[in-house]
Amino acid sequence: MILSMTGFARSEAALPTGHLVCELRSVNHRFLESSLRLPEELRPLEGELRARLQQELRRGKVDCNFTYRNLAPESRELEIDSALVDRLSGVLTRLADATRGVTHPPQLDLVELLRFPGVLREATPDSQALLDESRRVFTAALQGLKEMRAREGSRLAELISQRCDQLTELVARVRARLPEVHQAIRARFTERLAELATNIDNERMEQEIALLLQRIDVDEELDRLDGHLTETRKIIAGSEPAGRRLDFLMQEFNREANTLSSKSQDLATTRMAVDMKVLIEQMREQVQNIE
Predict the structure, then answer these.
(1) pLDDT tens digits in sequence order for the chain, 291 residues long
(2) What's this model's pTM, rounded to 2 decimal places?
(3) How many CA atoms lie within 13 A of 236 on its CB side?
(4) If both were cysteines, with which of 51, 101, 102, 276 could 257 make a disulfide (CB 3.0 to 4.6 Å apart)?
(5) Which of 209, 228, 120 minimizes the C-alpha distance to 167?
């Protein structure tokens, strides 16, 4: 299955203490390179998330960006330190006993009690719950990224298959034209000899023509192009990572097309060789994005 190295995914969750967002972006790269930006609350997950990326992806430059926004102060939950209040109540009770009989004993003021340091505080977020929810959000984003890379890969496979079909047609056209090209070369050679008005042994002439045809023979290049096309289709239909193998094949395609062009003694064949190189370059650009 062809997978692209380009993709984007986003996942988010609303928590009692804030809003959590995970974004994953990936672009083409020779190897797998991951970059994680995490808030301090999620630092304990860095190694685990990096290992997940290495487990699920083979190639690409992947940026993982987590953001965690706390709720506005007016939306945050408050809690009372009951243990501290109990201790303060004991102190106040003893104070009341000590001042019994005083004309104006001190009165308990609940507002003043709340102002005592530590009695009233913001609810502390559950760090383990935050980490667990972050794992869930990351898993959802990673799945979305993989799905997008798969969709992009399917599109790339289709484009490469189309180019392969066009290359196959060009190879067949060049092969079909070979007899006509050979006949034209033989006719040109004979015509030049006639212009020279020189008697030449027919056997020697056939030898020279055979040597000339051998130098411009492109059957081997066409056979190798056919073989590369077969291998390309096989790789596209396979289930293994294909990017590096296809990249190597693009180099081989280009080598054969260049040789075909350099050997050509026919304008039409040269034009078809140029068309081949255009298609190969288009495929090579697509292959750069394949995992």
Answers:
(1) 799 999 999 999 988 778 899 999 999 998 999 999 999 889 999 999 999 999 999 999 999 999 998 764 554 556 676 777 777 777 777 766 666 665 555 566 666 666 667 666 555 556 788 899 999 999 999 999 999 999 999 999 999 999 999 999 999 998 888 877 767 666 666 666 666 556 666 666 666 656 665 566 777 888 999 999 999 999 999 888 889 999 999 999 999 999 888 877 778 888 999 999 999 999 999 999 999
(2) 0.70
(3) 22
(4) 276
(5) 228
